[in-house]
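ugh ok fine here u go
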Amino acid sequence: MVIYGAGGGNLVANRLSVSYTDKAWAQDYPSIDNLIVRSTVDEEGMSDAVFDNAFLPACADGDRRLDEPAQPPMSNVVLAAWAKYPAVTQPCHTKPLSEVSISENVDSTYAMYAGNVRIPLVIGEMKRNLINAEAWQSGELPLAQKKLARELRGYGEHQSPQAFCWDGQTLLTLQFRALKPEQLRDAACAVDCWVIPSDGSTCTLRYAP
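structure:
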């Protein structure tokens, strides 16, 4: 639940319940072991995220998007930066764009259109207090996080090599370094990883995606 403060900030009323994941179809996918963790935590516990060495240099259209005004709630803060240059939509609870049938819907997909064709840019799952930030930051995943990793890998194969998970406290962003969809099934496929807490980070949630 999100509470809007008088100062424009968003305070999350966290009930501390946890939504675990153990989807049967995700068991067909390997977990993620080859992590390239690109976020850091300093001695005072402040997080930072480095994107420059994982992506191509920013172009003029990126600067135009970042100049767009931001308004709550969280997802629309992101969408405000993608209303044009080009326009990005956010269909929710949709089937993956794939010839392979998956019974599950994806919680959130950010996509653009080329004519009448929807092109997914990033897929995302919403959980509750599931992400173990320290585990992802260290690259050593316990069982519950491995199950989440399999799920995100599975969705990514059918939609996009970029995936995220938001659990109310932490934004986990992944980029599979694959040139074609079938490479996402390869356990050796390297995965860029950013772990960004909602509090205690120099990287804003709007900038992270």
